[in-house]
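pipeline/complex-builder :: batch 7 item 3
reading input block
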Amino acid sequence: MKATIDGIYRFGKDFATLSMVPKYKIYDEKIIRKGKDEYRVWDPKKSKLGAALRMGLKETGLFEGAKVLYLGIANGTTASHISDIVGPRGVIYGVEFSPRSIRDLLLVAKRRTNIMPILSDARIPQRFASRVEKVNVVYQDIAQKDQSAIFIRNAETFLKKGGIAMIAIKARSIDVTENPKKIFAQEKQKLQAKFNIITDIKLGHFEVDHAFFVCKLK
Amino acid sequence: MYTYISLAPIGLFAYDADGKQLASIIFKLDDAKGRFIDASGSELTEDDKGLIKKLGKKDDQIIFEIQKDGFGSEFPNISGETVRNNISKLAISTGFVKDAGQYYQYLNELNSEITRISIKAASTEDRLLIHAVSTIDELESTANTLAIRLKEWYGLYYPELLERVRSNEKLVSLIASNPKREDLSDDAGLSMGGDYSDEDVIALQNYAIIIDGMYRQIKDLEAYIDKKALMIMPNVTRIVSPTLASRLLAEVGSLEKIAKLPSSTLQVMGAEKALFRHIMGQGPSPKHGLIFQAPVINQAQKKQRGKRSRMLASTLSIAFRMDYFDKCLTGGDLLKEKFDKKIENIKG
Ligand SMILES: C[S@@+](CC[C@H](N)C(=O)[O-])C[C@H]1O[C@@H](n2cnc3c(N)ncnc32)[C@H](O)[C@@H]1O
């Protein structure tokens, strides 16, 4: 089977990744079998990257062997698909500051050894820098008020030249009372100070009032 | 010229400002995890010292990337930047591993181990908080008992002061710093109390100093609790004070348990006696327990309190769950806003 986007396969309207660890599900994702291969269907309701694909995202910057810094990896729902895409030669540095969520990620990382679980605060890269390296992709989903600043800081510190940085922004995490459109415009402006924005997608009914930006460092 | 040091999973590296490697210490794969974890702390380890010795530089010429006691630090520095650009190649060329696969296998184990250790440390945080809360209660009751004895003792000497200073804590602190009545007031000569010798006064003062220390300890613990509570319950402390949040936590015993309680239990927690009377048919059902300490409840009109308690308890139960499962701070802000709106609505 041929991938539609690097490492990402299409089945009708669904997207899926070829499982690196067949027979083990991560969340209750649907499985499609083709001979010996297992494709894990990407649930757009449970993963913002999955939702972005359904809303027309074409370029993710992810490829087989890529190195990724994932901020706010939680229990690894989205990361499991990225893990499939980058494969055994790739790496995901997964930063998460909730001990509860990362406990589940530890189990995932046992089978998927390309995931490095890091319990740390994304705001303070100094605390985890000695355990990570320069990466091809930075992915961030943390729903914090100062998320754009955190994103910029990490991309500047860890993104390789020409690398891609993706961020999911939840309007309500910035300001609950303000109109989401206004918030997205304002966050976009913050990002544009440091990045060229290649794609700007709203996640529609999959994740209400969420925007998704794909960027490159200037 | 400065020398820049950085820590990596395979060892320590020193570079000059032009990006030339000056020296390194490479761990052995067998003991690398322990040495990495040690070197991550702010204390200087044997490996740090070894590298500095190799460099032969003065301490003030050395800049670390992480914080090290007594040294300058800069993040990121050129050493870290260079190493992070080709760590897997370095791991092979230094002989640390034979191929990239082996390096990443090691890195997965290293990160998992550090994360496991940190989870363990984090899981005892709530228990530390609970101990501090119980300690305050015990100190308070002990200090008050001892203060009663002090008052009787001091009352024989200068009873007028007891009339003037009502708070135990203030009185104890006065006596501890200077118990002599002629120093405390101009009209002490008119006191009805008996005369004490210097020796009598000193014995009394020493006793007061101990009790005063307890009151101070309580203050320190309160500050400690506030800080810890904000950290481990960022969402709950958006809704109620850190003190009340900690009392609720202490009542139940752990963040995990409290996150799983129904909100009706939260509402009456700490009102066990009243609940017992109610069950025995001897009283009305209690509307609020510990949460009565929250100003939104105790400063409300009587007939609003029941409703407000219910709302507060259900909001708190969501906040406790957030703090246990996921600390997205903004959740607490949203929750607080909703709660305030609800309270506003029932006012009208
Ligand atoms: C919306 S969830 C992420 C879901 C995940 N990206 C997925 O799709 O599978 C946001 C996560 O970010 C984490 N988080 C929030 N602030 C953080 C910070 N400053 N550093 C690290 N993690 C953070 C939260 O604990 C939470 O698990």
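note: The interface with chain A takes residues 6-9, 36, 40, 65-67, 75-76, 80, 84-85, 87-88, 100-101, 104-105, 107-108, 110-112, 114-116, 118-119, 122-123, 324-330, 333-334, 337 of chain B (CB under 8 Å).
queue -> next item
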